[in-house]
């Protein structure tokens, strides 16, 4: 793989993580944050982290364009090109995210405008994920032209996004109000990890049928699955501790987050390496 493919891997993962994290933090930290300064600070910190990550993603997006200076011309083909729609929604989501952070800082209390912008940001985020997945669902590439591509992008958004939210929550995750929400988030992540492991096995069988395992390096699928299973076991243990109201060691979440992120990088590398058209 060339450098442009590596930037594409990190671009897609960062964007998906940010969309998932924004969606989940809006569910975890709704309007109740207005009466809790600690929640307000946490929410604003999350928004700033997401905004920085999205700026990095935008910069990375220019590296896999043939001529970055011509990116503006992609908006001329919005009706026929999913790539053009991805670029548009990337811009819209980033701008709305910045606007949400600005309003959240200036008016963190009850604000109809803040709620409205947040809803628009969530919609723009999922439209971005949809257009991103549709780019790869082409008839000329059988292994990509499947609903599993869409499901993989969505699950990746929620898993990485959820882990980012948990990691940034720190000690607040065991606070009364947040603890109940974190419990739900844990269950979502655990369920999605199980589904993702099943999808990894399915894709491995698909690659085997297409006889492209030599190009993919068979060990990649095994490495990803082992890392996911290890992360799943630690999450189950931490979830049990959370339910029993035991003190949690935050460094474990950081380590699990790093393991899951690394497994997604391996999986995304395998995804792009599986590029095989009929007759190639």
Tell me what the structure shows:
The chain is mainly α. The protein is built from 9 helices and no strands. Helix 1 (about 5-30) crosses helix 9 (about 250-275) and helix 2 (about 35-65) packs antiparallel against helix 3. The radius of gyration is 19 Å and the shape is globular. The two termini are about 15 Å apart.
Short recap of the structure:
The chain has 280 residues and is mainly alpha-helical. The protein has helices spanning 3-28, 37-63, 82-106, 112-136, 147-169, 176-209, 213-216, 219-243, 250-273.
Topology, pairings included?
Blueprint: H1 3-28, H2 37-63, H3 82-106, H4 112-136, H5 147-169, H6 176-209, H7 213-216, H8 219-243, H9 250-273
Helix pairs in contact: 1-2, 1-4, 1-5, 1-9, 2-3, 3-4, 4-5, 5-6, 5-9, 6-8, 8-9
Whole-number average pLDDT?
A: 79
Number of helices: 9
Distance between the termini: 17 Å
Radius of gyration: 19 Å
Low-confidence segments, given as residue ranges, are none
The helix/strand class is: mainly alpha
């Amino acid at each position: 793989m060339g450098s442009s493919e590596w930037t594409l891997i990190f671009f897609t993962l960062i964007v998906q993580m940010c969309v998932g994290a924004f969606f989940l933090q809006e569910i975890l930290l709704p309007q109740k944050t207005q009466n809790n300064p600690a929640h307000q600070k946490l929410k604003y910190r999350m928004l700033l982290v997401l905004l920085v990550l999205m700026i990095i993603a935008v910069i990375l997006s220019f590296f896999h364009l043939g001529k970055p200076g011509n990116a503006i011309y992609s908006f001329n083909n919005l009706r026929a090109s999913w790539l053009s729609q991805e670029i548009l929604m990337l811009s819209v989501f980033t701008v709305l995210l910045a606007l949400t952070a600005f309003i959240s800082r200036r008016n963190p209390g009850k604000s109809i405008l803040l709620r409205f912008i947040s809803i628009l940001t969530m919609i723009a985020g999922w439209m971005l994920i949809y257009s991103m997945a549709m780019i790869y669902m082409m008839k000329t590439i059988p292994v990509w032209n499947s609903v599993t591509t869409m499901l993989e992008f969505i699950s990746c958004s929620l898993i990485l996004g959820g882990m980012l939210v948990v990691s940034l929550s720190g000690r607040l995750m065991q606070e009364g109000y947040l603890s109940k929400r974190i419990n739900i988030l844990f269950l979502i992540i655990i369920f999605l990890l199980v589904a993702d492991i099943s999808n990894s096995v399915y894709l491995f069988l698909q690659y085997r049928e297409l006889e492209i395992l030599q190009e993919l390096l068979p060990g990649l699928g095994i490495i990803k699955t082992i890392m996911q299973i290890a992360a799943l076991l630690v999450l189950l243990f931490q979830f049990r501790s959370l339910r029993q109201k035991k003190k949690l060691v935050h460094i474990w979440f950081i380590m699990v987050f790093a393991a899951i992120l690394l497994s997604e990088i391996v999986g995304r590398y395998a995804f792009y390496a599986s590029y095989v058209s009929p007759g190639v």
